Amino acid sequence: MQRDDIRKTVTAQFYQSLSESSVQITALPQNQLQAVVNALADGVFAALAAVDAEHDAALGNNIAGATRGVSPQGVAQDNTPHVEQLLWRGRPYLTLGTVYELTTQRLRVLSGLVSNNVDEVELIRVHDTEVKQHVGERLLNVGDIVIFADDTTSPELVLNNIQNPIEVREMIRKAVLEERSRRGLSYREVMR
């Protein structure tokens, strides 16, 4: 949810609750009352950001445990354990509740502030990527990255409003090639 959407929701709920309670606020002019409501909305936004930061920190601790070798995620060709490592972490521009993670083995989309939904694609299943930017996004260096994969649950995964989308796309491409090489998989084009 965007900051303006949160502000509109808090404002609407504030005025609805005020009218339902039969309380009349006449001591404050309308513009000052609106400033109080906006401050309340900003407080809600700050609280949500703090919850999101705690959520990110908890996820970071789980990933740190995996990169220390606590939970190996695979075995390399020489039978040594391969530890999954976090390569990149980002979030959509001006958005709370969604985090994107690129590891050495998969691409994850974590969404939700209170609940958590995880959508992921194994890098070896990725067969193409695409960056989409309109004029306004190019000015902000923001764009969408579309991941095309041979995955029945997520054949097309979109990372929305990513900062530096071309650089992130190249990181994904490099990680895909390295994971295929690590697993001994060669590239083969499927003719359709």
Describe the structure.
With 192 residues, this protein is α+β, with helices and mostly antiparallel strands. It folds into two domains: 1-71; 74-182, Pleckstrin-homology domain (PH domain)/Phosphotyrosine-binding domain (PTB) (PH-domain like, Roll). Helices cover 42% and strands 26% of the residues. The protein is built from four helices and nine strands, in the order ααβββββββαββα. It has helices at residues 3-20, 30-67, 135-140, 165-182; strands at 74-75, 81-82, 86-90, 98-103, 106-111, 117-122, 126-132, 142-149, 156-163. A four-stranded antiparallel beta sheet has the order 3-4-5-6, with helices on both faces. A hairpin with a 6-residue loop joins β8 and β9. It is elongated, with a radius of gyration of 22 Å. The protein starts with a helix and ends in a 10-residue tail after the last helix. 14% of the residues are buried. Residues 61-79 have low confidence and may be disordered.
Which SSEs are present, and which pair or pack?
Layout: H1 3-20, H2 30-67, E1 74-75, E2 81-82, E3 86-90, E4 98-103, E5 106-111, E6 117-122, E7 126-132, H3 135-140, E8 142-149, E9 156-163, H4 165-182
Antiparallel strand pairs: 1-2, 3-4, 4-5, 5-6, 7-8, 8-9
Short note summarizing the structure:
Helices cover about 40% and strands about 25% of the residues. By secondary structure, it is α+β, with helices and mostly antiparallel strands. The radius of gyration is 22 Å and the shape is elongated.
Rough outline: elongated
Structural class estimated from helices and strands:
alpha+beta
Uncertain residue segments: 61-79
Radius of gyration: 22 Å
CATH architecture of the largest domain: Roll
Roughly how much helix do the residues carry, as a percent range?
40-55%
How many β strands by DSSP?
Answer: 9
Highest-level CATH class of the largest domain:
Mainly Beta
**How much strand?**
25-35%
Can you say what the CATH homologous superfamily of the largest domain is? Pleckstrin-homology domain (PH domain)/Phosphotyrosine-binding domain (PTB)
Helix-strand sequence: HHEEEEEEEHEEH
The CATH topology of the largest domain, please?
Answer: PH-domain like
Strand order of the largest sheet: 3-4-5-6
Classify the oligomer.
Answer: single chain
Instruction: Work out the count of structural domains.
Output: 2
Largest sheet: 4 strands, antiparallel
Overall pLDDT metric: 79
